[in-house]
Amino acid sequence: MSLLDVKNLRVSYGAIPALAGVDIRIEAGEAVAVLGANGAGKSTLLRALSHLVRRQSDGIVFDGTDLSKLSPHEIARRGLLHVPEGRQVFQRLSVSENLRLGALPASGSSRGRASVDQMFELFPRLAERRDQLAGTMSGGEQQMLAIGRALMGRPRLLILDEPSMGLSPVMVDVIYDALERIRHRTSLLVVEQNMHVAMALTARAYVLKTGNIAYAGPVSGLSEDLIQAAYLGGTE
User: Fold this and answer.
1) Which residue, 37, 35, 42, 43, is CA-closest to 195?
2) What's the domain range around 213?
3) Can you tell me the distance from the alpha carbon of 103 to that of 29, in angstroms, rounded to the nearest whole number?
4) How confident is the model at residue 236 (pLDDT cuts 50, 70, 90)?
5) Total domains present in the chain
6) b/e for 176-187, b at 16 or more Cβ within 10 A?
7) Does the predicted TM-score (pTM) go above 0.70?
8) Helix 169-182 vs helix 139-151: angle between axes, to the nearest 10 degrees?
9) N or C: the chain end with fewer CB closer than 10 Å?
């Protein structure tokens, strides 16, 4: 059984379809990329998985549980955690306080919780800034914090929305090095417009084009023509 199995996922904003019947699956231990142009439906896909938007489907099964009617909080409790675009850290709380807020209650979960020290080991820069207010940190540091906060709940699947957006190449390398380190114990679904960094991390990809799957398969099977058509064909 796949860790995540999604059938015929549909989302509309008014009369405008954002996802028009998307099927995806993720196996335990996999790192999977979702690629595509702005407006292709990538972020909507992640928000739909977390039930942050109204959606319809023929099934969203995660670790044997149907998520279709569960709230975002209940979905997170089951081990599917979302690092949203824009980081959304608590600006007036310290690094340590943000991390502690990410620790889900152990009751109802056999995964337990990660420790703040483990996050400091993964992201040493956060350790240096443990008492600093999150709102005074750089975008790259806030992205580390957002990922660390999600990892405090020991997710089975971590879904990340544009983790490289607006970051310097050095910071992108730091973020993706950390994702490479955790992928042996946490499955990853990474939405990226920066296809090169995502393809270096993942073995399999979905390419979205105007709410439809234009490609599903190994990263090695992505052709330049397909990528150009998907990226140049999308509109915001």
Assistant:
1) 35
2) 1-79+155-173+183-235
3) 22
4) very low
5) 2
6) bebbeebbeebb
7) yes
8) 10
9) C
